[in-house]
Design brief:
ClpS_core, 3 strands, protease, about 120 residues, ClpS, rod-shaped, alpha+beta, 3-stranded antiparallel β-sheet
């Protein structure tokens, strides 16, 4: 009996490269649209015990407000029960809330500060 060698499939055809076989790869740039991060407003709530001067000092120290703007926000908090101190990304807003609450606790004031989606 004659032995037959098994037939192997033909090797795959090499694709014709547009650059003449140099092997250069050209990648197309795809622009990806990234949504901006959600913003949160830091809000101080009114109480009948925290001195107005302390609120103004907190607005100047932690929110970098000038005296006139800090006084305006403090009066808004006093008359309307709440006032927006600033609008920030989630991490920054949470940090500012914690800093305000810590300062109020250290000073013995019941000042409340929260963050809300803007």
């Amino acid at each position: 009996m004659p032995s037959e060698t098994p037939k192997l499939p033909p090797p795959p055809a090499q694709p014709t490269l547009p650059d003449g076989g140099e092997g250069t790869v050209i990648a197309e740039r795809q622009s990806s649209k990234v949504e901006p991060p959600r913003l949160y407003q830091v809000v101080m709530l009114n109480d009948d015990f925290t001195p107005m001067e302390f609120v103004v000092m907190v607005l100047q120290q932690f929110f970098h407000r000038d005296l006139e703007t800090a006084t305006h926000i403090m009066l808004k908090i006093h008359h309307e029960g709440r006032g927006v101190c600033g609008v920030y990304t989630k991490d920054v807003a949470a940090t500012k809330v914690e800093m305000v609450l810590a300062a109020a606790r250290r000073a013995g004031h019941p000042l409340q500060c929260i963050m809300e989606a803007a």
